[in-house]
Amino acid sequence: MTTLDELKELAIEAQKKAYCPYSNFPVGAALECNDGTVFTGCNIENASYPIGICAERTAMSKAISEGHYDFKRIVIVANTADYCSPCGMCRQFMFEFSPELELICLNANHDAKSFSLNELLVHGFNGSSMSNR
Ligand code: THU
Predict the structure, then answer these.
(1) What is the pLDDT of residues 25-71, one digit of tens each?
(2) Other CB atoms closer than 10 Å to residue 43's CB: what's the count?
(3) Which CATH number fits domain 4-130: 3.40.50.1000, 3.40.140.10, 3.60.40.10, 3.40.50.20?
(4) CB 11 less than 6 A from any atom of ligand 1
């Protein structure tokens, strides 16, 4: 069982590994699965800008590629005055697996603000939206 404080520390450690020479905007994430397993991620940029990946999708891709599909909460940290909430692409990516995911966003002071993914992506698109194909 990982405490919220431990999860925050893991996200802060992951943020230190960010590869972000183009934006200089390091982001870290720590994702807890419903079975208790934790995966971390950071943003990874590229000279071909659009192919960079956000910290949230790095963490979730690591989890999925290890056979974990069911997620409880994710801590996201950035050096921002306000809380850094995930971009639209990450919201959609995470919604596919866990629409009820809890997002705990940390600002530069590591104060936390929580959201539900459902709240950030209202009426999100998922597989059941395709039932009339
Ligand atoms: N970024 C993330 O990793 N997560 C977010 O929630 C917001 C943005 C990254 C993408 C890019 O590497 C940098 O931050 C600036 O947008």
Answers:
(1) 999 999 999 999 999 999 999 999 999 999 999 999 999 999 999 99
(2) 24
(3) 3.40.140.10
(4) no
> 3: CA distance to ligand 1 center in Å?
25
Residue nearest to ligand 1 atom 1, measured at CA = 54
Q: Cα–Cα distance between 96 and 119 in angstroms, integer?
A: 15
pTM (whole model) above 0.85: yes
pLDDT digits (tens, 9 = 90+) for 83-102: 989 999 999 999 999 999 99
Residue 25, ligand 1, Cβ within 6 A? yes
Pocket flag, ligand 1, residue 32 (CB < 6 Å): no
Domain boundaries, the chain: 4-130
